[in-house]
Amino acid sequence: MNETLSLNTKAILLLTAPLIFGRGKGEKPTDLLTPGEYTKLALYLHETGRQPAELLSSDADKLLRDCHHILNHGRLKRLLTRGFLLSQAVERWQSRAIWVVSRSDDGYPQRLKARLKKASPNLLYGCGDRKILNSGGLAVVGSRNVNDSLIEYTQEIGRLAAKARQTVVSGAARGIDRAAMTGALEAGSKVTGVLVNNLEQTVMTREHRNLLLEQRLVLISPYDPNAGFNAGHAMQRNKVIYALADAALVVNTDINKGGTWAGATEQLEKLHLVPVYVRSTGVPSDGLEALKAKGAMPWPNPEDEDDFDAILKSDTPNPPALPIQSHLQFDTL
Fold first, then answer.
1. For residue 3, what pLDDT band results from cuts at 50, 70 and 90?
2. Nearest to 38 by CA among 7, 64, 71, 65
3. DSSP codes joined into one string, 12-61
4. What DSSP assignment string belongs to 315-332?
5. How confident is the model at residue 321 (pLDDT cuts 50, 70, 90)?
6. Are the C-beta atoms of residues 31 and 123 closer than 8 Å to each other?
7. Pairing relation of β-strands 123-128 and 217-221?
8. Could you tell me the pTM of the whole model?
C-alpha cells in the first residue's frame, strides 16, 4: 500500500475497525460502531454537507456534539483518539503491500457502490491490482468438501473463463472456490478472491505473492487483515462476491444450510444482482434442484469462449420460482 490514506478513510477506520495487528494482538474495543451505526452517522454528515474527515479537524468538538442525537459524543471521541494504534496498523499493512479504501474514496470499486448502495462495506482491505475489481466476470461458488470430479469440472470452468478473457470471482475457500481460481490462474486469467478472514496471512504465502505482483490476482476482504473466521461475516461476504460479477454459477450446495446456500438464495429471493446459474451436468443434487425451484437457471455448458462470453453479457433475469422437483437426471460429467 504505497498511497497515503485519505482523511475520510482514517476517520472511518478509527470509528469502525478493530485495528488488529501482530499475530492478532491489538486493541479490540467493545464500542466500535456497527455497520448500521456508522451508516446513520454517515447519512447525517452527508445531509449536513460534511464528511467523516471533519471529525478529525481541530474544531471537531462542535461536530461531535452535533452528532450526539445519533451517537454518544464521548464514545465517538474515544474511538477517534486511537491515532497511535492506527499508525501501527497502517505501518504493518504497508509493509505487506495491503491497501485499504473506504466508501468515501474514488478508488472504491464502483460495482459495489452501484449495486449494494448503503449495504456496501464501509471499508475494503486488499492486495493486488484494484482495477480487476471493476472487470466483472463469473462468480463461482460451492461447498468445501467435494469429490475430485467436481474439482476438475470447476477447474475447467476457470480455464474456459481464461480463454474468454473473463475474470473469475470467488471466495478463496477450500474446495470449489479454490478450484475455480486455480483453473483460471493456471490458464492465464485474472482472479478476484473475496476473503472473510486472515487476509494478511493469505497475501504473504508464496503461492499468492507472485500472482499478486504480476497483477493477475487481487485478494480483498471487508474485514480487518488479521480477523479470524466469523460465520456472520462469511454470510455478508457473499454479497460482495455476487456484486463484483456479471453472473454466478453455483457448482454444488447443501439444501437449507451453509454459506453457499444462504448466498444463492439471498440473490434469488432478495437482491437479484446477477443471473444465478446452477451446474447442469453430473450427479444430481437436491440443493441445486432447490435453487432451480427458486429461479436459478441451468448452466448452459458453453463449448467455447464465445459462448461463455455471451452468457456473461446476457442480462436475462432469473425466472420466477417453481415447485421443487427432486432428483432430476443430470448428464454425466
1. low
2. 71
3. HHHHH-----STT-S---TTPPPHHHHHHHHHHHHHTT--GGGGGSTTHH
4. -PPPPPP------PPPBP
5. low
6. no
7. antiparallel
8. 0.90
